[in-house]
């Protein structure tokens, strides 16, 4: 009961524009600096280099929410392009992750599509890959529709499927051959569209992981759950699935020892590195996901 209440509070806070504006003035405080790699691309590249040196690969995400104008969306698009250029110049092993709402999805879908084309053209020039992060349920179908259109022209783009959604398995089947990041899900969704019980979310998570792997599609398994990781490693060994067909992904700042251990065992381990001053919504969703994250943040706040 207390855990559910805590989760709801953090998820509510993540959607607050007022708190988000205030957080930009605070800077990376209250433990956020442990999970957000600074406010600039230079700070993100520095973090990527450090992780590359330990055998880990990365993806970076310039955080941004509540974009309400074409000017803001265009600025975010330019920043994504510049980030891809900077990744190429630095020589780090790193992809790009982004959110379509930051590129104007809620303003004009065709405008957003054209912004994505500019980004994917740049990524293709650098032989890089772009992951479209999945947002809340209201944006799910729009995201998949836009992805389907982009995939007619670009192979260097994929998206995310959330196992707490009832539709997840069918979406994975429909997206056979598309590189997917599979996650449990971090937004507050209604019982009409999403499982509410952890056991059912976990069960569906393993179901969609197996479905995508067995289809021969490249699969990114994003979890900090060592039990899920153990089940996946057992499954791929049993089915003779090559390590080249999948990777594990975790968030920057979490379970660092496990990340390194998986890399040392020969698995591709990709770290999701967010950066930027628009960090509040991301940080609140991380606190909502697991009670342990709250203690993690408090530890960071009082160790400053």
UniProtKB/TrEMBL annotation:
Its EC number is 1.5.5.2. It is an enzyme of class 1 (oxidoreductase). Binds 1 FAD per subunit. One of its GO terms (biological process) is L-proline catabolic process to L-glutamate. FAD binds at residues 134, 162, 184-186, 198, 223-224. Pathway: Amino-acid degradation; L-proline degradation into L-glutamate; L-glutamate from L-proline: step 1/2. Keywords: FAD, Flavoprotein, Nucleotide-binding, Oxidoreductase, Proline metabolism. Residues 44-295 form the Proline dehydrogenase domain. It holds the Pfam family Pro_dh. One of its GO terms (molecular function) is proline dehydrogenase activity. Substrate binds at residues 99, 285-286. Its cofactor is FAD. It comes from the Bacteria. It catalyses: L-proline + a quinone = (S)-1-pyrroline-5-carboxylate + a quinol + H(+). Gene3D superfamilies: 3.20.20.220. This is proline dehydrogenase. It comes from Paludifilum halophilum. The lineage of its organism: Bacteria, Bacillati, Bacillota, Bacilli, Bacillales.
């Amino acid at each position: 009961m207390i855990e559910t209440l805590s989760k709801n509070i953090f998820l509510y806070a993540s959607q607050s524009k007022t708190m988000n504006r205030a957080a930009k003035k605070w800077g990376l405080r209250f433990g956020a600096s442990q999970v957000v790699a600074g406010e600039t691309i230079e700070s993100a590249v520095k973090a990527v280099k450090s992780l590359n040196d330990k055998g880990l690969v990365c993806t970076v995400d310039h955080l941004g929410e509540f974009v309400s104008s074409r000017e803001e969306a265009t600025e975010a698009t330019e920043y994504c392009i510049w980030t891809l250029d900077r990744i190429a110049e630095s020589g780090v092993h790193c992809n790009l992750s982004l959110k379509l709402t930051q590129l104007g999805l809620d303003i004009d879908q065709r405008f957003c599509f054209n912004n994505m084309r500019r980004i994917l053209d740049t990524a293709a020039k650098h032989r890089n890959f772009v992951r479209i992060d999945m947002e809340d349920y209201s944006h799910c179908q729009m995201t998949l529709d836009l992805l389907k259109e982009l995939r007619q022209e670009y192979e260097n783009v994929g998206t995310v499927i959330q196992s707490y959604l009832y539709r997840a398995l069918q979406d994975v089947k429909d997206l056979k051959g598309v590189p997917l990041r599979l996650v449990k899900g971090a937004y507050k969704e209604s019982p009409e569209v999403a499982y509410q019980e952890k056991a059912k979310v976990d069960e569906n998570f393993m179901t969609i992981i197996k479905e995508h792997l067995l289809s021969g599609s490249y699969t990114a398994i994003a979890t900090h759950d060592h039990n899920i990781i153990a089940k996946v490693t057992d499954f791929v060994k049993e089915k003779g699935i090559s390590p080249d067909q999948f990777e594990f992904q975790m968030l920057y700042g979490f379970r660092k020892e496990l990340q390194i251990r998986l890399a040392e065992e020969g698995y591709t381990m990709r770290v999701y590195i967010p950066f930027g001053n628009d960090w509040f919504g991301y940080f609140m969703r991380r606190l909502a996901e697991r009670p342990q994250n709250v203690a993690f943040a408090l530890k960071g706040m009082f160790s400053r």
